Amino acid sequence: MNHLFKALNDSTRREILSLLKEKDMSAGEIANEFNISKPSISHHLELLKRADLVNSKKDGQFVIYSINTTILDDLLNWILTLKNKTDENP
Amino acid sequence: MNHLFKALNDSTRREILSLLKEKDMSAGEIANEFNISKPSISHHLELLKRADLVNSKKDGQFVIYSINTTILDDLLNWILTLKNKTDENP
DNA sequence: TGCATATTTAGATAAATATCTAAATATTTT
DNA sequence: AAAATATTTAGATATTTATCTAAATATGCA
Protein backbone atom coordinates (compact mmCIF):
# COMPACT_ATOMS: atom_id res chain seq x y z
CA MET A 1 0.00 0.00 0.00
CA ASN A 2 2.92 2.31 0.70
CA HIS A 3 4.26 2.05 -2.84
CA LEU A 4 0.80 2.70 -4.20
CA PHE A 5 0.16 5.88 -2.21
CA LYS A 6 3.67 7.09 -2.92
CA ALA A 7 3.23 6.57 -6.65
CA LEU A 8 -0.04 8.46 -6.69
CA ASN A 9 1.32 11.39 -4.68
CA ASP A 10 2.66 13.24 -7.71
CA SER A 11 0.67 15.04 -10.37
CA THR A 12 3.04 14.08 -13.18
CA ARG A 13 2.59 10.41 -12.37
CA ARG A 14 -1.16 10.80 -12.12
CA GLU A 15 -1.16 12.47 -15.53
CA ILE A 16 0.89 9.62 -16.95
CA LEU A 17 -1.79 7.22 -15.75
CA SER A 18 -4.46 9.33 -17.42
CA LEU A 19 -2.54 9.18 -20.69
CA LEU A 20 -2.05 5.43 -20.44
CA LYS A 21 -5.75 5.04 -19.72
CA GLU A 22 -6.39 6.14 -23.32
CA LYS A 23 -3.69 4.08 -25.02
CA ASP A 24 -0.41 2.27 -24.50
CA MET A 25 2.59 4.50 -25.09
CA SER A 26 6.35 4.26 -25.34
CA ALA A 27 8.55 5.97 -22.75
CA GLY A 28 9.51 8.57 -25.35
CA GLU A 29 5.91 9.32 -26.31
CA ILE A 30 5.07 9.81 -22.66
CA ALA A 31 8.07 12.07 -22.12
CA ASN A 32 7.00 14.23 -25.08
CA GLU A 33 3.80 15.12 -23.24
CA PHE A 34 5.70 16.83 -20.45
CA ASN A 35 8.26 19.60 -20.06
CA ILE A 36 10.43 17.27 -18.05
CA SER A 37 13.58 15.46 -19.09
CA LYS A 38 13.38 11.87 -20.29
CA PRO A 39 15.41 10.57 -17.35
CA SER A 40 12.93 12.15 -14.95
CA ILE A 41 10.03 10.55 -16.76
CA SER A 42 11.89 7.26 -16.69
CA HIS A 43 12.17 7.63 -12.95
CA HIS A 44 8.44 8.33 -12.62
CA LEU A 45 7.69 5.26 -14.72
CA GLU A 46 9.88 3.19 -12.43
CA LEU A 47 7.87 4.31 -9.40
CA LEU A 48 4.61 3.55 -11.19
CA LYS A 49 5.97 0.11 -12.03
CA ARG A 50 7.09 -0.50 -8.46
CA ALA A 51 3.52 0.28 -7.38
CA ASP A 52 2.29 -2.15 -10.02
CA LEU A 53 0.26 0.62 -11.62
CA VAL A 54 1.84 0.09 -15.02
CA ASN A 55 3.32 -2.78 -16.99
CA SER A 56 6.08 -2.48 -19.53
CA LYS A 57 7.19 -4.62 -22.40
CA LYS A 58 10.13 -4.16 -24.67
CA ASP A 59 9.25 -3.81 -28.34
CA GLY A 60 12.45 -3.50 -30.30
CA GLN A 61 14.20 -0.38 -29.16
CA PHE A 62 11.02 0.94 -27.55
CA VAL A 63 9.57 0.21 -24.15
CA ILE A 64 5.79 0.22 -24.26
CA TYR A 65 3.96 1.09 -21.09
CA SER A 66 0.38 0.15 -20.27
CA ILE A 67 -1.81 0.90 -17.29
CA ASN A 68 -2.66 -1.79 -14.75
CA THR A 69 -5.78 -0.88 -12.86
CA THR A 70 -6.23 -4.11 -10.93
CA ILE A 71 -4.03 -2.79 -8.13
CA LEU A 72 -6.48 0.08 -7.74
CA ASP A 73 -8.99 -2.40 -6.35
CA ASP A 74 -6.89 -2.55 -3.20
CA LEU A 75 -7.14 1.20 -2.94
CA LEU A 76 -10.89 1.09 -3.55
CA ASN A 77 -11.31 -1.40 -0.74
CA TRP A 78 -9.14 0.62 1.58
CA ILE A 79 -11.30 3.68 0.96
CA LEU A 80 -14.56 1.80 1.31
CA THR A 81 -13.42 0.28 4.58
CA LEU A 82 -12.65 3.75 5.86
CA LYS A 83 -16.05 5.01 4.76
CA ASN A 84 -17.87 2.21 6.60
CA LYS A 85 -17.79 3.54 10.14
CA THR A 86 -18.07 -0.01 11.47
CA ASP A 87 -18.25 -3.40 9.79
CA GLU A 88 -21.87 -3.68 10.82
CA ASN A 89 -23.06 -2.80 7.33
CA PRO A 90 -20.79 -4.71 5.00
CA MET B 1 -6.59 16.46 -5.07
CA ASN B 2 -2.94 17.23 -4.31
CA HIS B 3 -3.62 17.81 -0.62
CA LEU B 4 -5.61 14.60 -0.46
CA PHE B 5 -2.93 12.40 -2.01
CA LYS B 6 -0.25 14.07 0.07
CA ALA B 7 -2.19 13.48 3.28
CA LEU B 8 -2.69 9.83 2.47
CA ASN B 9 0.95 9.26 1.58
CA ASP B 10 2.03 8.54 5.13
CA SER B 11 1.30 5.46 7.18
CA THR B 12 0.98 7.36 10.46
CA ARG B 13 -1.71 9.57 8.97
CA ARG B 14 -3.50 6.59 7.49
CA GLU B 15 -3.45 4.92 10.90
CA ILE B 16 -4.87 8.06 12.47
CA LEU B 17 -7.76 7.85 10.03
CA SER B 18 -8.32 4.21 10.97
CA LEU B 19 -8.45 5.19 14.64
CA LEU B 20 -10.87 8.03 13.97
CA LYS B 21 -13.04 5.68 11.94
CA GLU B 22 -13.84 3.90 15.22
CA LYS B 23 -14.40 6.93 17.38
CA ASP B 24 -13.67 10.62 17.77
CA MET B 25 -10.49 11.29 19.73
CA SER B 26 -8.57 14.18 21.23
CA ALA B 27 -5.16 15.11 19.92
CA GLY B 28 -3.57 13.67 23.03
CA GLU B 29 -5.43 10.38 22.79
CA ILE B 30 -4.30 10.06 19.21
CA ALA B 31 -0.71 10.89 20.13
CA ASN B 32 -0.75 8.20 22.82
CA GLU B 33 -1.30 5.56 20.14
CA PHE B 34 2.05 6.32 18.51
CA ASN B 35 5.69 6.47 19.49
CA ILE B 36 5.94 9.91 18.03
CA SER B 37 6.06 13.25 19.81
CA LYS B 38 2.88 15.23 20.27
CA PRO B 39 4.08 18.10 18.07
CA SER B 40 4.67 15.63 15.23
CA ILE B 41 1.17 14.22 15.63
CA SER B 42 -0.18 17.76 15.70
CA HIS B 43 1.56 18.36 12.39
CA HIS B 44 0.05 15.19 10.91
CA LEU B 45 -3.39 16.30 12.08
CA GLU B 46 -2.88 19.64 10.41
CA LEU B 47 -2.14 17.94 7.10
CA LEU B 48 -5.21 15.73 7.47
CA LYS B 49 -7.27 18.84 8.15
CA ARG B 50 -5.84 20.65 5.15
CA ALA B 51 -6.92 17.69 3.05
CA ASP B 52 -10.35 17.92 4.64
CA LEU B 53 -10.04 14.34 5.86
CA VAL B 54 -10.69 15.31 9.48
CA ASN B 55 -12.64 17.95 11.34
CA SER B 56 -11.70 19.36 14.70
CA LYS B 57 -13.65 21.11 17.40
CA LYS B 58 -12.39 22.59 20.60
CA ASP B 59 -13.92 21.08 23.73
CA GLY B 60 -12.54 22.89 26.74
CA GLN B 61 -8.83 22.36 26.79
CA PHE B 62 -9.12 19.42 24.41
CA VAL B 63 -9.32 19.40 20.63
CA ILE B 64 -11.52 16.59 19.40
CA TYR B 65 -10.83 15.21 15.97
CA SER B 66 -13.31 13.32 13.81
CA ILE B 67 -12.99 11.71 10.41
CA ASN B 68 -14.60 13.25 7.35
CA THR B 69 -15.04 10.66 4.65
CA THR B 70 -17.02 12.75 2.18
CA ILE B 71 -13.81 13.97 0.58
CA LEU B 72 -12.97 10.36 -0.15
CA ASP B 73 -15.75 10.34 -2.74
CA ASP B 74 -13.57 12.49 -4.94
CA LEU B 75 -10.85 9.91 -4.65
CA LEU B 76 -13.28 7.11 -5.41
CA ASN B 77 -14.41 8.89 -8.56
CA TRP B 78 -10.85 9.54 -9.61
CA ILE B 79 -10.05 5.86 -9.30
CA LEU B 80 -13.20 4.72 -11.06
CA THR B 81 -12.52 7.09 -13.94
CA LEU B 82 -9.08 5.60 -14.28
CA LYS B 83 -10.48 2.11 -14.26
CA ASN B 84 -12.94 2.84 -17.06
CA LYS B 85 -10.66 2.56 -20.09
CA THR B 86 -12.97 4.87 -22.05
CA ASP B 87 -16.21 6.62 -21.20
CA GLU B 88 -18.06 4.27 -23.53
CA ASN B 89 -19.32 2.18 -20.62
CA PRO B 90 -20.37 4.65 -17.97
C1' DT C 1 30.54 -2.58 -38.75
C1' DG C 2 29.40 1.86 -37.45
C1' DC C 3 25.95 5.49 -36.71
C1' DA C 4 21.34 6.92 -35.12
C1' DT C 5 17.56 6.41 -31.96
C1' DA C 6 15.37 4.93 -27.43
C1' DT C 7 15.77 4.25 -22.76
C1' DT C 8 17.91 3.77 -18.40
C1' DT C 9 21.62 4.43 -14.94
C1' DA C 10 24.75 7.44 -12.23
C1' DG C 11 25.73 11.25 -9.77
C1' DA C 12 24.63 15.92 -8.23
C1' DT C 13 21.49 19.42 -6.24
C1' DA C 14 17.60 21.96 -4.46
C1' DA C 15 13.16 21.52 -2.31
C1' DA C 16 9.97 19.03 0.56
C1' DT C 17 9.02 16.39 4.63
C1' DA C 18 8.99 13.88 9.12
C1' DT C 19 10.84 14.30 13.24
C1' DC C 20 12.66 16.34 17.51
C1' DT C 21 13.11 19.79 21.60
C1' DA C 22 11.85 24.12 23.56
C1' DA C 23 8.66 27.63 24.00
C1' DA C 24 4.05 29.74 23.53
C1' DT C 25 -0.97 29.64 24.13
C1' DA C 26 -5.30 28.11 26.09
C1' DT C 27 -7.98 26.00 29.61
C1' DT C 28 -8.98 23.90 34.09
C1' DT C 29 -8.26 23.24 38.90
C1' DT C 30 -6.78 24.31 43.51
C1' DA D 1 -3.55 33.86 41.06
C1' DA D 2 -0.62 30.01 40.48
C1' DA D 3 0.05 25.41 38.97
C1' DA D 4 -1.20 21.69 36.01
C1' DT D 5 -2.78 19.87 31.67
C1' DA D 6 -3.61 20.00 26.50
C1' DT D 7 -2.29 21.54 22.22
C1' DT D 8 0.12 24.15 18.84
C1' DT D 9 3.95 27.03 17.04
C1' DA D 10 8.90 27.84 16.12
C1' DG D 11 13.14 26.49 14.80
C1' DA D 12 16.57 22.91 13.75
C1' DT D 13 18.03 18.64 11.38
C1' DA D 14 18.27 14.44 8.73
C1' DT D 15 16.04 11.97 5.08
C1' DT D 16 13.49 11.65 0.92
C1' DT D 17 12.35 13.15 -3.52
C1' DA D 18 12.00 15.49 -8.10
C1' DT D 19 14.82 17.23 -11.19
C1' DC D 20 18.88 17.95 -14.14
C1' DT D 21 23.12 16.68 -17.19
C1' DA D 22 26.28 13.26 -18.72
C1' DA D 23 27.22 8.66 -19.58
C1' DA D 24 25.96 3.80 -20.37
C1' DT D 25 23.20 0.29 -22.62
C1' DA D 26 20.19 -1.53 -25.95
C1' DT D 27 18.30 -1.91 -30.70
C1' DG D 28 17.70 -0.72 -35.62
C1' DC D 29 19.49 0.57 -40.04
C1' DA D 30 22.61 1.73 -43.90
How would you describe this protein?
2 copies of one chain form a homodimer. Chain A is α+β, with helices and mostly antiparallel strands. The first copy, chain A, has one domain: Winged helix-like DNA-binding domain superfamily/Winged helix DNA-binding domain (Arc Repressor Mutant, subunit A, Orthogonal Bundle), CATH 1.10.10.10. Helices cover 56% and strands 16% of the residues of chain A. Chain A is built from 5 helices and 3 strands. Chain A has helices spanning 2-8, 11-22, 27-32, 38-50, 72-83; strands spanning 25-26, 54-59, 62-67. Chain A has a 3-stranded antiparallel sheet with strand order 1-3-2. In chain A, a hairpin with a 2-residue loop joins strand 2 (54-59) and strand 3 (62-67). In chain A, helix 1 (2-8) runs antiparallel to helix 4. The radius of gyration of chain A is 15 Å and the shape is elongated. The model of chain A has no long low-confidence stretch (mean pLDDT 94). At the A-B interface, helix 1, helix 2 and helix 5 of A face helix 1, helix 2 and helix 5 of B. The first copy, chain A, binds a DNA duplex (30 and 30 nucleotides) through helix 3 and helix 4.
Q: What keywords describe this structure?
A:
homodimer; 90 residues; alpha+beta; three-stranded antiparallel β-sheet; 3 strands; elongated; DNA-binding
